[in-house]
Amino acid sequence: MTLGLVVVSVVLGLAVGSFLNVVIHRVPRGESVVRPASRCPDCGNPVRARHNVPVLGWLVLRGRCADCGKPISARYPLVELGTGLLFGAVALRFGDPDQLASLPAYLYFAAVGIALTMIDFDLKRLPNAIVLPSYPVLVVLLTASAAARHDWAALLRAGIAGAALFAFYLLLVLVYPAGMGWGDVKLAGLVGGVLGFLSWAAFAIGAFGGFLLGAVAGVVVIALRKGDRKTALPFGPFMVIAAVLAWFVADPIADAYLRLTGLA
Question: Start and end of every Prepilin type IV endopeptidase peptidase domain (predicted)?
Answer without folding.
Answer: 108-218
